[in-house]
Design brief:
The structure holds two protein chains of two kinds. Chain A is of the alpha/beta class. Chain A is built from 16 helices and five strands. Chain B has helices spanning 4-24, 31-36, 41-44, 80-87, 148-151, and strands at residues 67-69, 72-74, 92-96, 105-110, 113-120, 123-131, 159-162, 165-170, 173-180, 183-191. Classes of the chains: A alpha/beta, B alpha+beta.
Chain lengths: 361, 193
Amino acid sequence: MKISKTLKTWLGIALFLVILLALLFAAQRLLMPKYMSGIPEGALPAEYYRETTDHDVIFVGDCEVYENFSPMTLWEEYGITSYIRGGPEQLIWQSYYTLEDTLRHETPKVVVFNVLSMSLGEPQSEAYNRMNLDGLRLSSTKLDAVRASMTEDETLLSYLFPLLRFHSRWSELSKDDFKYFFKTDPVAHNGYLMRIDVKPKTQLPSKPVLDDYTLPAIGFEYLDKMQALCKDNGIQLILIKSPSEYPYWYEEWDAQVAAWAEQNEVPYLNMLLLSDEIGIDMQTDTYDGGMHLNLSGAEKLSTWFGAYLTENYALEDHRSDPVYADVYAAKKAAYDAEIADQQRQIDEYGKLIDIERANGN
Amino acid sequence: MKKPFLHTVSLMMAAMLLLGTLLLSGCSNNSSAEESGSTSESSLTSGTDVVFVDPSQVRPDYGKLGFESNGFTFGIYDTMDDIIAGIGDPNGTFEAASCAYQGNDYFYYYSGFELMANDFDGVQRLTHITVIDDTVSTPQGITIGMAAIDFTASSISFTDEGNGKFTHQEGSCIMQVIIKNDKVSAIEYYPAK
């Protein structure tokens, strides 16, 4: 059958567009940061979508959740399934939209939000925005998150088409960009970034005196939204202040959050005040002098928190469920493998050499 | 004889080449990458606002807002090597990594005051001075605990920012004083944004 010239032209155009899109997609894939070494935090948002089973507990918030809680401990000791959808300097509106994104995939029974980010009322930096948002799947939720987060110089278009932002990385491509072109490796354990090294707390910087201790109103607006979102979905919200001792969490801020929590009948746990009960020892349980917990600290905190969750919420023990048991057996193997690898590095080099090298040391 | 199909294809190839060239030549209007000079992972994810300052533009110009210790005057954006050589070793140090473990803040503790530094192209420069107690005073004679009325008589003029916060700027350095309960409760120096 003879194909008309017009049809040939249109087929040519279609073919051109397909090839163009494929090339642009490939270029974008190559040029976007992979976050496989140096800054694994950037890989956290997208890693969630690999999960094959649901979670009864979802954590949202900043590094004080993804460095301080171990979902594996919650599983092993209580059969609680959980995931930490945290991000570096995750702002409260990003926590809200990350939760909204999570609810597109599952409905947990409990959501835990770390309140430190309530001290920030404005977009902070493109770098942290990218790490919290680029990995989210495209949806109206992601677009809302981007609009709420953009700094002055950022554009929505650059989040829809990241190639517009990362095109100049072509001169800085590394082996990782090619190695992880098709697929990245997992960096976390149900959203928990593990560190087993120890750096005891010595002297923290002095506590700055502020001219104004009023928490930004936008924080409470999004807290209201988070509460409403949880209520609409039959989810129970818990507010926490993780036991990280720096940056400082002022008593004045604590009082404001406690007042909101009381008014809205939402539990609020300031774990800084419960450190003794939890058993946190900042001489052994931190890898950076008191800012974040190491594995020892995270497991202690998770043991305590798991008991709290079990006593106060009707959470199912899934350990006898063969589907979950199989999935978590594989997760446990990966968890133990990372502990062994980090221990080997410390035994051989006295430090986590992979992290040192990735940071250019 | 004209071959419109091949002509169309060749036009499309030229368009693709042009588009690719435009994309790779940096037509984006996003200035964060340009400010930092790079879109590498490390520069993109540097944790503090200070790091987004063009290192080539960073130079000490604090004028009257120098701080003094051990007879040595120093100020914002001076190198830590020079400062430590001038005032002596600190009593202690602390390093605060950002959540992404980039853009560390380096703290140096001295009697009565505390210094914070950040990296600019591999050189640590002073980015914050915090006066801790009343054992030190600024060159203007301002001390922690000083009565507000005595502060207002200082030799440099301050702008009232409200909420008890007063600032004075010289070059790219800001000196901030906070008054609470009619007394000076905080004295800090930091770069203007």
